[in-house]
Write a structure and sequence with these properties.
The structure holds 2 protein chains of 2 kinds. By secondary structure, chain A is an alpha/beta fold. Chain A is 40% helix and 14% strand. Chain A folds into 5 domains: 103 residues, Glutaredoxin, CATH 3.40.30; 211 residues, Rossmann fold (3-Layer(aba) Sandwich), CATH 3.40.50; 84 residues, Ubiquitin-like (UB roll) (Roll), CATH 3.10.20.600; 88 residues, Up-down Bundle (de novo design (two linked rop proteins)); 56 residues, Alpha-Beta Plaits (2-Layer Sandwich). A 5-stranded mixed beta sheet of chain A has the order 12-11-15-13-14. Chain B is α+β, with helices and mostly antiparallel strands. Chain B folds into 2 domains: 60 residues; 77 residues, 3-Layer(aba) Sandwich (Glutaredoxin), CATH 3.40.30. Helix content of chain B is 46%, strand content 13%. In chain B, strands 2-3-1-4-5 form a 5-stranded mixed beta sheet, covered by helices on one side. Chain B is elongated, with a radius of gyration of 19 Å. The chains are: A alpha/beta, B alpha+beta.
Chain lengths: 624, 156
């Protein structure tokens, strides 16, 4: 089909009603099954493609292709279980699949209608299988708006997206309502920028709409660079049309006709998916001139980043699209007045844009009903670290952190004690156990010294050293500092030196005060968000874990036994039978002792590599 | 150093032609040219400078700013020899030297046939397997003069 108008869009949508109802588990039609195989980067890395191919082959071979369809989604949300598959209409969730499992799934589930118990998700507390995806606490405690199509559509098929209301919001924005009303609904929704800073999206659009000029731009920031964060990547891989539609609506709101998606080159699958989505949208006339017969035109291009973290900053991103070194510039003028090529520009993050179509379709009030007073809607986090279930989670604003960690994340493995939750990556901070009742709300999180950030959430337990964590993030910021302004260029370097000195046991008591002073200075005087937030990990760890800094400096001790210069390995005389195993694996011959006699470690020679601990069957080696 | 062949120059010129009229084309041009040549030596940068009418200093500034661009060719395989303390004392340095001697490259260089790029790394956390070496995504334990060439034979 070529270009479509609104009636044809609705026609496609109604054609898919049955398909979607099956996938939503609402109807069951003649034993029809939809096998939604997880795709996306994490599933591909866990070898989901051979599973997908094997299922398709087996279905074909057994002559089941009429009623059973294997569809690849962009779902890799519950990363620890990949590769996964959901079978609809029953919504049964199979995990850790290999091509060898396919035979059982086809003959037992598809033909005999029985569950393949060994492949079901097991509740880690009692090892009982939980067959349905939506009964698994990891999913049942989430609210999916941004990620609503995760397991329901093939992201490479525009019709699948249209079955799930794609471009309905755009149709409404382009045909039914005025630009003022679009901006008004976005303002009512209360949505704030999901890239981290949390600026109200509706206000940003209003400024750009009011700016004079024939040429304006809408940009999508897909330069997701925080270590460990992959929310935007998943949205792009699982539901690219939601982002395109969000951009069309933004374009109409500010009267722009050209857009760019700035995507980091490290996301090849997302770029491929976007390219396909853009081609399909153009073919339907959902991009280009006269979209849906509305008279309004908008088109966009993908711009590949070339590997610079600072290009996630808005002015740097625009300068990078202009083909220059991506270094931020001072504001004002703000991009809404003077952005890309000095034209009024709106830049929104992927997650923000993906929410827009539903806000327009369902109304701002609908979105504003979710969340807290000042933080509306949902937020996607990449939950990782010392937590049983790691992966993407989407929760309503206002959910306490402890619920995310325990109810969704399943708590801390190996009965360890939670120490802190790090939020916001290199721009964020550590929220300690005592403050775990803090809710996901921009202001509440900022009050703890962290920031909402783009969605990185790393759980830390007693084995994580907070000084070491601060050093890790500072090293990242120092390497990524573009060097344009002195406070960031020099300040991050000096802070890194001080933190390294402390972790190496050379710290002096004045170093904490010096760090604090430097941190405040860098925060206040840096040009852009990178420098202004780079000190956050240091300041928040000093604020909540000053005792750990003091232990490193005064007692020359690392309480978490992480900093190698501050730990000693000793052998417990009671436990060591003198088997000689550790002696053989020690790379530096630091272990001495005759056979069948208690061994000892020479602290001068020991490099604290841990090889002996890993080899000892008697738990005889301790770190102090 | 890898030669830029006539065929490559032709492709480079085609890329420049395609983007000539477009503003902000430098980064995509550099990305595509690097795909063609594997790296961006000065002579390629100069050709782009003339073609797009952008000062060479600006191009050099962009090439050195973004981590995706390289001015030395990258090999098909990357060898990383661990020189963390454990590996060092167990012969990591000798392993590095034997690779350097065999292929005539230094650290952070690439062999003439673009087969290997060589580098050393600080501890990779595999001290119990010392001395360790990583080739592409594969980690090898207890690497020695006796087995190192055999391992590398697997990477053509």
């Amino acid at each position: 089909m070529g270009r479509i108008n609104r009636d044809q869009l609705n026609e496609i949508k109604s054609r898919g009603k049955n398909i979607i109802d099956i996938r939503l588990g609402k109807v069951s039609v003649d034993g029809e099954k939809h096998l939604m195989v997880g795709g996306g980067t994490a599933c591909h890395a866990s070898k989901s493609e051979p599973v997908r191919d094997a299922i398709r082959e087996e279905i074909e071979k057994r002559g089941l292709s009429q009623r059973c369809k294997a569809i690849e989604t962009g779902n890799d949300a519950f990363s620890t279980l990949a590769p996964v598959m959901v079978v609809y209409p029953e919504g049964v969730y199979y995990v850790h699949l290999t091509p060898d499992d396919v035979d059982d799934i086809v003959s037992e589930h598809l033909i005999d209608g029985k569950l393949v118990e060994r492949l079901l998700y097991k509740d880690p507390t009692n090892n009982k299988p939980i067959p349905r995806m939506m009964d698994i606490p990891y999913f049942s405690n989430q609210t999916l708006i941004t990620l609503r199509n995760l397991t329901l559509i093939d992201p490479e098929k525009i019709d699948d997206a249209i079955y799930r209301d794609a471009y309905q919001g755009a149709a409404k924005a382009l045909i039914d309502i005025t630009t003022e009303e679009i901006i008004n609904q976005v303002k009512i929704s209360g949505i704030r920028g999901r890239g981290g800073a949390g600026f109200p999206t509706g206000m940003k659009w209003q400024f750009a709409a009011k700016s004079e000029g024939d040429i304006k731009y809408v940009l999508c920031n897909a330069d997701e660079g925080d270590p460990g964060a992959f929310m935007d990547r998943s949205v792009l891989e699982a539901d690219p049309h939601a982002v395109l539609e969000g951009m069309i609506i933004a374009a109409k709101a500010i009267n722009a006709h050209q857009g760019y998606i700035y995507c980091r080159a490290e996301y090849p699958l997302a770029i491929k998916g976007l390219t396909i989505a853009i081609e399909q949208a153009r073919r339907y006339g959902l991009l280009g001139k006269d979209i849906l017969g509305s008279g309004f035109g908008f088109d966009l291009e993908i711009y590949q980043g070339a590997g610079a973290f600072v290009c996630g900053e808005e002015t740097a991103l625009m300068i990078s699209i202009e083909g220059k070194r991506g270094m931020p510039r001072p504001r004002p003028p703000f991009p809404a007045q003077e952005g890309l090529w000095k034209k009024p520009t709106v830049l929104n993050n992927v997650e923000t844009l993906a929410n827009i179509p539903q806000i327009i379709l369902n109304g701002g009030q609908w979105y504003a009903a979710i969340g807290t007073e000042k933080s509306k809607g949902t937020k996607v986090f990449a939950l990782a670290g010392k937590v049983v279930n790691s992966g993407l989670v989407e929760v309503p604003m206002g959910m306490p952190l402890k619920d995310i960690v325990y109810k969704i994340g399943g708590g801390i493995p190996e009965e360890k004690r939670l120490k802190a939750v790090q939020i916001g990556g290199p721009s964020g901070g550590c929220i300690p156990l005592e403050l775990l009742d803090t809710v996901t709300d921009y202001e509440a999180i900022t009050a703890t010294g962290a920031i909402m950030g783009s969605g990185g959430m790393v759980v830390m337990d007693e084995d994580n050293c907070m000084v070491d964590i601060a050093r890790f993030f500072m090293e990242f910021c120092q390497e990524e500092s573009c060097g344009k302004c002195t406070p960031c260029r020099e300040g991050t370097k000096r802070m890194l030196e001080l933190l390294t000195k402390i972790t190496e046991g050379q710290g002096e008591i004045d170093d904490i005060a010096t760090l604090e002073e430097l941190a405040e200075m860098v925060k206040d005087s840096s040009l852009c968000g990178l420098g202004q937030t780079a000190p956050n990990p240091v300041l928040s760890t000093i604020r909540h874990f000053r005792d750990e800094y003091e232990a490193h400096i005064k007692d020359k001790r690392c309480p978490a036994h992480v900093c190698r210069a501050l730990i000693t390995y000793i052998i417990d005389e009671e436990k060591c039978p003198g088997c000689g195993k550790c002696k053989r694996v020690c790379p530096v011959e630091a272990i001495i002792g005759e056979e069948k006699v208690v061994h000892t470690i020479d602290p001068e020679k020991c490099i604290r590599c841990g090889a002996c601990i890993a080899s000892c069957k008697f738990d005889a080696i301790e770190v102090v | 150093m890898k030669e830029i062949t006539l065929k490559m120059w032709k492709k480079i010129d085609d890329i420049i032609q395609r983007y000539k009229e477009k503003s902000g084309a430098l980064i995509p041009v550099l990305e595509e040219c690097q795909d063609v040549c594997g790296y961006l030596p000065m002579e390629v940068q100069e050709r782009i400078s003339k073609g797009l009418n952008i000062p060479g200093s600006t191009i050099y500034g962009v090439v050195t700013f973004y981590s995706f661009f390289t001015m030395v060719p990258k090999g098909r395989h990357t060898i990383k020899v661990c020189l963390g303390t454990a590996c060092y004392v167990r012969g990591g340095k000798a392993n590095l030297e034997s690779i350097q001697d065999e292929f005539g490259v230094e650290k952070r260089e690439t062999t003439g046939d673009l087969r290997f790029s060589l580098d050393s790394v600080r501890c990779i956390g595999a001290c119990g397997m010392a001395p360790a070496m990583v080739v592409d995504d594969d980690t090898y334990a207890q690497v020695s003069k006796q087995n190192i060439m055999k391992i590398l034979d697997g990477y053509k």
